[in-house]
Amino acid sequence: MTFYDVTLFVRRRRTVFAAAAGCVFLLAAASGTMFRVTAMPKESLPALDVKSLGPYYAKRVVEMYRELQSHPSNELLAERIASVLHYRKQHSAAEEWFHFLSKRNPGSARYLYELGLVQAQYPDFAAAVRSFATAVRLDSRNTDAKLQFGLALLETGKIDESLAILQDLVHRDPRNHYAYYGLGRLYAAKEALPQAIGAYRKALDLLPDFKACRLALAHALILQSKREDAERELAAAERPGSNKAPWEDPIAKAVEAEFPTAAEWVRRGGEATERGDPVTALRANLTALEADPERGDAQINLILLYAMCGETEKSAAAFQTAVARISEEDREEQAKLAAERRNTGGTAPGSPAKCLSAPS
Fold first, then answer.
1. Which of 19, 68, 165, 286 is packed most tightly, with the most Cβ within 10 A?
2. For residue 260, what are the contacts with CB-CB under 8 A and spacing of at least 6?
3. Could you tell me the CA-to-CA distances from 264 to 208, 215, 260, 268 in Å, in that order?
4. Cα 263 from Cα 171, distance rounded (Å)
5. What is d(CA 256, CA 250) in angstroms, rounded to the nearest whole number?
6. Contacts by residues 180-187 (CB-CB < 8 Å, ≥ 24 positions apart)
7. What single DSSP character describes residue 328?
8. How far is it, in rounded angstroms, from Cα 77 to Cα 45?
9. Separation CA 329–CA 222 (nearest Å)
10. Are 256 and 291 in contact (CB under 8 A)?
11. pLDDT at 262
């Protein structure tokens, strides 16, 4: 039989073969003995609470959530919701959403990495270690996950394991400033201050605006009784554009508690405002301006705080000062914010709090 004969034979019988296969499939499906079609279970979305997000972010998240309910397979929407919750420091809710995403994608290191970051900021470093470890196991080339894994191990007191990871990262990438920062933290934990200072300085050579590293360096210098050097590092840490640590840094917090920077005074003022204590908030923002006269957020805060204290003339003066300091490119946006704060403070219900005379 030639090749042509074989081809002709197959063509003539193709319809017969297809019909036979169709009959077998239909019989098997009818009997249910060979094929079973099971519907995929519909996974419920995590609960959503937007009370603490503020009106702008709450509206955005609710819109995304409703669209996700209509299209539950839209992973990008779920990721955006999780990211907004993380950004707005709703750590418990963000953790639940990244758990949801990681379960949907059990082979993805990315969502486990994001989950670990949320857990580290919570902070729950034991959980973060587990998430980062799994992320590294799934993707051994993910240097970011390895770095955070090493830092999280340090936070849980597993110094030797952390040292091995961080030294390996520095060996593979000598320009990894976060790895040098982690080594500095590790040496400081071992009370090896000269090595810690050397590692911090190496990180700052690579990234001069690494604020948390400068604060950690200042802390190590204080422990070595080099107070003048420490104060210079603290002043440098106040430069605009300074980067932060990947999560709340205990050393940075300890240094700022002992040597409050302008940013720290503004933060304390915000906490006092939330507590309903405008007197303390006013003092904190005025102290921030003494430390850094160009601190725009502190100047804008004075508008509301003076108004809350019934000092309408000082509120108006603060408004004029804030507007005068605004650069040309963002004058319109910032002036609108300043006016909004002024009006909010001026129309606040209730009798104004009595404020002590503040230094001019």
1. 165
2. 268, 287, 291
3. 20, 12, 6, 6
4. 35
5. 10
6. 180/206, 181/210, 181/212, 181/213, 181/216, 181/245, 182/147, 182/150, 182/151, 182/154, 184/213, 184/216, 184/217, 184/220, 185/151, 185/154, 185/216, 185/251, 186/154, 186/159, 186/162
7. G
8. 12
9. 41
10. no
11. 81
The Cβ of residue 198 has, within 10 Å, a number of other Cβ atoms equal to: 16
- Bin 354: left if φ > 0, else alpha if -120 < ψ < 50, else beta: beta
Q: How far is CA 67 from CA 40, 78, 126, in A?
A: 20, 10, 35
Q: Give mean pLDDT in consecutive 10-residue pieces for the chain, a chain of 360 residues.
A: 38 42 41 35 75 87 92 90 90 92 90 92 90 94 91 91 93 92 90 94 92 88 88 79 62 67 85 89 91 84 91 89 66 63 51 45
**Structure tokens given for 132:** 């980062």
DSSP H/E element including 99: helix 91-104
Look at residue 243 and give its three-state secondary structure: strand
Query: What are the angstrom distances between the C-alpha of 349 and each of 23, 305, 307, 346, 354?
Result: 80, 14, 11, 9, 15
* Structural contact between residues 170 and 180, judged by C-beta atoms closer than 8 angstroms: yes
Per-residue tokens: 288: 């921030």
Q: Which residues contact 16 (CB under 8 A, 6 or more apart)?
A: none
Q: Looking at residue 348, what is its pLDDT?
A: 44
Q: Is 320 helix (H, G, I), strand (E, B) or coil?
A: helix
